[in-house]
Amino acid sequence: IVKPLKADAGFYFNLDATGLVVISDQGDSLGEEYTFALLSEYILSEHPGKAIVTNVSTSSLIDDLAARYASPVIKTRIGEKYIIERMRSIGGVLAGEGSGGAVLPEFLCGFDGIASMGMILQMLAKRQTSISETVASFPQYSIKKDFVRCPVHLFHPVLRRISEIFSANTLDLTDGVKVFFQSGWLHIRPSRNEPV
């Protein structure tokens, strides 16, 4: 509906309006990962050198965007609670994750899709640009999210074995096992909500 209406953007929220997905002026659904990326790029352009917080499973796009502004990216375990706690403890200017959720501490210390939408609209108005032009300036990454059912009693043995198999690689054990490769990374972690 965005493109036929010649709208600048479209937005859809999850049920409690804590997460947001942006639709470009071309009518493309950008996916949840781009909400935090758009916010990161804009907020850091306004506050270069300031820290942002995300989880260890959020796209490397965030690291690249933060590097443009010499801003550190602090990584936490997955979960709104961990991200907000870390943001508050370091005085970060933004926190969020690839789920479309973001925290704008100037407004609220909680995931707020409506404030995120407002900030993205402010960026468009201030810069006189489009979502598609902004996203075209971003490095391109692909991401695949999937799950495998695993009995709870096997979580830790499986993670230990993965750590052993990839012991020659750089590992991040903040939340499960994140294995770094030259061309990207793989993150394996148990869900805290179900046996996957």
Description:
Strand 1 (10-13) and strand 2 form a beta hairpin. It contains seven helices and nine strands; from the N terminus they run αββαβαβαββαααβββ. It is of the alpha/beta class. The termini are far apart. It has a four-stranded mixed β-sheet, with helices on both faces. The longest helix has 15 residues, at 32-46. It is 36% helix and 17% strand.
- One letter per element, helices H and strands E, the order comes to HEEHEHEHEEHHHEEE
Task: Report the major sheet.
Answer: 4 strands, mixed
Q: What best-fitting shape do the alpha-carbon axes yield? A: globular
Global Rg: 17 Å
Number of helices: 7
Strand line-up of the largest beta sheet: 4-3-5-6
Model regions low in confidence, pLDDT < 50 over at least 5 residues: none
Question: What's the total count of β strands?
Answer: 9
Backbone structural class: alpha/beta
Strand content: 15-25%
Helix content: 25-40%
What average pLDDT do the residues reach? 94
N-to-C terminal Cα separation, in Å? Answer: 36 Å
Oligomer: single chain
